[in-house]
Each structure stands twice: as structure tokens, then as C-alpha cells.
Amino acid sequence: MEVLVYGAGALGSLIGGLLARAHDVTLVGRDPHMRRIRDDGLRIGGELDAHVRPRALTDGTHRSADLALVTTKAYDTDAAARDLATGEYDAVCSLQNGLTEERLVAALDPPVLAGTASYGARFLEPGRVRCTGVGEVVVGTLSGGASALATRVEGACDAAEIEAVAADDMPRRRYEKLAVNAGINGVSALARVANGETLTGPGGDVSREAAREVAAVARAEGVDLRDAETVAAVEGVARDTAANRSSMCEDVTHGRRTEVDAIYGSVVERADEHGVAVPTCRMLAALIRAWEVGEGVRGD
Ligand code: KPL
Q: Smallest Cα–Cα separation from 4: which of 32, 29, 40?
């Protein structure tokens, strides 16, 4: 299969690199990472080990592939969609944080699948990423139900020995993933602690409440997500990734813009549409945005 991975940061490079063990992969990312991959290939270390030679480009215009995986930061979704709209793809699948798929649907003709990837990835240096946890890739349609395309993506992942599931309950899984992000990322970023401590430290109640608020928004949107299962999902991810630092914690540590809008912003926006109270997510959104303004890294 020909796969374009748009957004070769840590996770995109890891997933793209693993796919390159079985498929014809093109990564789209930034120099000097792309240049180094062109010169020396991509090295994956940590829990998995590989040295692969995918194509590495700095722009994705006018390409074609069977599948385009979008792995950019959520705030780069519109730019990614503009680039991808100039190419030809049988399907597009987001593996991003936040509810980005609707924006891809609005900008692109091919079918858009929703996806999650729970592999842990860390960027080490140009040309090198570390796998900090073997997880799974889950893909499915935005409206749920069986999908031949999702099954094809699952098969492509299987061929490359990536754990994958074609799920027919993607609406629920999307909200569960959003709840995990809302539960872990804000507290870990504000307290600068690893995922494990987010739930066990003094911020644990804030984390759990943020996750329950996401479940309430999901229910208002017709998605059956119970509070207890949502909190259990957040606790499970925090336990399984205890030593890792969330992407938002990494962003604030390195003085970078965060995905606050895609995570807490979309929760607050949808909550307001349905008249659901989400004071914890609203507060976390405000605090992280205030940090971004102070650092001068907000995009608006
Ligand atoms: O997706 C994540 C992130 O760091 O952005 C996890 C590891 C699930 C924490 O929310």
C-alpha cells in the first residue's frame, strides 16, 4: 500500500516508520528531520527497533497515495487539509488529538476516517525517534458502524506488525480519547508532572472531573459514555504511560504552543451548544491559554 504520513513529528515518524517495514511510505515533515531521513534513513529505538528508508518531504502538495494519515498537531489541521486537497488519496485518516476530523471532512473529498494511536513516541534528534510504549491504532468511521476502508487500514497495519483494530464504535472511542486527553494533559502540563502523577497527585480530582465533563458532553451529543468507564479509561492510560510526559506537558516544557483549543476548546464549545456545564475544562482552557499568551506562542 502507498501511505502518506502528513506530520512527521514524534508519533507520525514512529507510525510512518513502522508502516515502512511493509509499505511504500512518504513522510511529510520539517527539516532538518526530513533531510536526515533522506540522507541516513529513520532510526526507531526504545521498545521497538527499526531502521527504515521512507521518502521524506517538506511539503505534501500534489501527491497521491492509497491512504493519507494525518498526524500533525491539531492546530495545523487546516494547513494540512489545504495541502492534502491538492493531491489524490483513496482515504484520509486522522491520528491526531482533539476532534479534528470534521475539519478534514469539510476540506477534503476522499472519505475521512477517525483514528487514535496509543503508541508512545518521543523525538530524539533529526532522523531518530524512540518508541516509549507499544500501543494500538484504532480506526473507524465518524458515524460508527462497520467500514471496509477501516478494515483495509487495519490490514495494512497488521502487515507492518502494528497492533490495530477496525472499530465500529468510533464515536464513543473518540470521546473516550478526548476525555483521556482532557483528564491528563492539562494537569500534567500545569504541574509539569509525568502522566502517572497526574492522577495520583493533588491534581487527581481535577483530572477525573475534567474527564467526567467530557463524558457529559458526549452524552449530550448522543454518544453513550458513562462517567465510571471514562474515569477508568483515564486512570488506565495514566497507569500504562505512568513514566511518560503528555504532549501538552512536553509543549509547555519546551515553550511551544499547545493543543488546548482542540482538546479543552472543543469540549467547551460543544458543551455551550448543549447547555452542559464544564467548569473544570473551562478553567483548564483559560489557564493554559493564559500561559500561551504569556509565552507569546498563541496562534491568534
Ligand atoms: O495522547 C496523549 C498525549 O500525551 O497527548 C496521552 C498520552 C494519551 C495523554 O493524554
A: 29
Quote ipTM for the complex. Answer: 0.96
Task: Choose among 191, 226, 221, 189: nearest CA to 211.
Answer: 226
3-state secondary structure of 256: coil
CATH 1.10.260.40 for the 170-295 domain, yes or no: no
CA of 135 to the centre of ligand 1 (A): 12
CA-to-CA separations, 272 to 64, 206, 263, 275, 285, in angstroms, rounded: 39, 20, 15, 5, 14
Mutation test of ligand 1: which of 11, 235, 246, 257 has the most ligand atoms closer than 8 Å to its C-beta?
Answer: 246
pLDDT in tens, 149-162: 999 999 999 999 99
Predicted structure pTM score: 0.95
Q: What is the pLDDT of residues 8-26, one digit of tens each?
A: 999 999 999 999 999 999 9
Task: Give the model confidence (pLDDT) of 64-79 as tens digits.
Answer: 999 999 999 999 999 9
What atom of ligand 1 comes closest to residue 237's alpha carbon? Answer: 8
CATH topology of domain 2-166: Rossmann fold (3.40.50)
* Active site residue ranges: 177
32 C-alpha vs ligand 1 centroid, how far in Å?
25
Out of 247, 249, 256, 281, give the residue to mutate to test ligand 1, the one with the largest number of ligand atoms within 8 Å of its CB. 247
Query: What does the mean pLDDT of the chain come to?
Result: 97
Count CB neighbours of 277 within 10 A. 11
Q: What is the 190 CA–ligand 1 centroid distance (Å)?
A: 14
Per-residue pLDDT tens over the stretch 75-95: 999 999 999 999 999 999 999
Atom of ligand 1 nearest to the CA of 244: 7
Instruction: Delimit the domains of the chain by residue range.
Output: 2-166, 170-295
